[in-house]
From TrEMBL:
<dbReference type="GO" id="GO:0071028">
    <property type="term" value="P:nuclear mRNA surveillance"/>
</dbReference>
<feature type="compositionally biased region" description="Basic residues">
    <location>
        <begin position="429"/>
        <end position="440"/>
    </location>
</feature>
<dbReference type="GO" id="GO:0034475">
    <property type="term" value="P:U4 snRNA 3'-end processing"/>
</dbReference>
<comment type="similarity">
    <text>Belongs to the RNase PH family.</text>
</comment>
<dbReference type="InterPro" id="IPR033100">
    <property type="entry name" value="Rrp45"/>
</dbReference>
<feature type="domain" description="Exoribonuclease phosphorolytic">
    <location>
        <begin position="32"/>
        <end position="163"/>
    </location>
</feature>
<dbReference type="InterPro" id="IPR015847">
    <property type="entry name" value="ExoRNase_PH_dom2"/>
</dbReference>
<dbReference type="InterPro" id="IPR050590">
    <property type="entry name" value="Exosome_comp_Rrp42_subfam"/>
</dbReference>
<dbReference type="GO" id="GO:0034473">
    <property type="term" value="P:U1 snRNA 3'-end processing"/>
</dbReference>
<feature type="domain" description="Exoribonuclease phosphorolytic">
    <location>
        <begin position="189"/>
        <end position="253"/>
    </location>
</feature>
<dbReference type="GO" id="GO:0071038">
    <property type="term" value="P:TRAMP-dependent tRNA surveillance pathway"/>
</dbReference>
<dbReference type="GO" id="GO:0000177">
    <property type="term" value="C:cytoplasmic exosome (RNase complex)"/>
</dbReference>
<keyword id="KW-0694">RNA-binding</keyword>
<dbReference type="InterPro" id="IPR001247">
    <property type="entry name" value="ExoRNase_PH_dom1"/>
</dbReference>
<protein>
    <recommendedName>
        <fullName>Exosome complex component RRP45</fullName>
    </recommendedName>
</protein>
<dbReference type="InterPro" id="IPR027408">
    <property type="entry name" value="PNPase/RNase_PH_dom_sf"/>
</dbReference>
<dbReference type="GO" id="GO:0016075">
    <property type="term" value="P:rRNA catabolic process"/>
</dbReference>
Amino acid sequence: MKATPLSNCERRFILRAVEERKRLDGRQCYDYRNVRISFGADYGCCIVELGKTRVLAQVSCELVPPKPNRPTEGILFFNLELSPMAAPGFEPGRQTDLLVKLNRLIERCLRNSKCIDTESLCVVAGEKVWQIRLDLHLLNHDGNIIDAASIAGIVALCHFRRPDVSVQGEEVTVYTPEERDPVPLSIHHMPICVSFAFFQQGTYLLVDPSEREERVMDGVLVIAMNKHREICTMQSSGGIMLIKDQVLRCSKITAVKVAEITELIQKALENDQKVRKEGGKFGFAESIPNQKITAFKMESAAVDTNDVEEQAEEIITKADPPSEVSAKPILHTPGTAQIGEGIENSWGDLEESDKEEAVEEEDESEVTALECQKMETEDTSTMKETKKDEPIVLSDSEEEEVVILEPQELPKKTRAQTNSKQENTSKKAFNKRRKKKRAA
């Protein structure tokens, strides 16, 4: 990721705020940003918002052959994508160091912690098992991607339902949701990541760093834990050396935050399941609050259609009388029309004036064409007279006779002068006729 670097002034300002135990968004040092969970119309789809950081999670499944070394276990596949839509510094289709680190952290948090019972995904041992695929897409980057991605991943896995399957001999039947209710995944616990940012070689500590705080921090510590206070994974990055007391303090803070987030996730899943059973509205569109400019829906309001005619008559009687309508439109200049409120349309008069001008132009073009023909005939007669006096040169060859004619340049000049005179006279006549029409 090639983000725009912070200036020295911004860097000093953030560090000074950290030293004074203040943050840019008004939080305390150990405060977590608000977590908001919204589900999609299908099972296994959700969006998690951690402040302004947004992550979309989607779970899918398919029947595949198992791995040779684990014939009775299902397959788990995790993929996180950082698109340019989230931040301009992300490049599509490129495996950056940050992306590789985040994918490894998610795999260790969800797969290595054994939070999902992979043996329950086996359909036929050694032949067919379920492959669960979790796709995470970063929609907006405002810091602490790993925490938002871990919450979105575990929520999508808990919300997902796979199709029911029956095995009779060697035949495997996969039922649709209309035939049989889908089956949820067997999840033992919910590992959730909590990130800690350290400044000035571990002297100052912040929970859930924002995007600007991540640029200034010296190092970060990520702890994945469940509500039973079992540490699933831990990773420290950056050039810092942490002592035992700092790690213990971070683990205690993690236990409190994980308990709060786990309770929030369970409430969100229960509410969604309750709405789906009752047949209510659910999905991303329904999670948008009403009475806002960005919402494309409004509550339906009843319209009273009683006494409509009486109300219309009252409005007509109280209204002002219409303005006077002029009988004839005013044509200020030929070739114009006048339209507007209380004035009749005069486009018909405009069309008639255009037709008259077109007829006059045709008559004038015919007159000028006749005059040009007369001048051409006169020019040809003068050319013939001049050619009679000039000698004719014959070639000495016996095969053919070649006649060389050398016309003078005087006829061209006279013709050009006459043409210019004709154009001037025609223009003067047209202008006179136009002035007469305007006067009339």
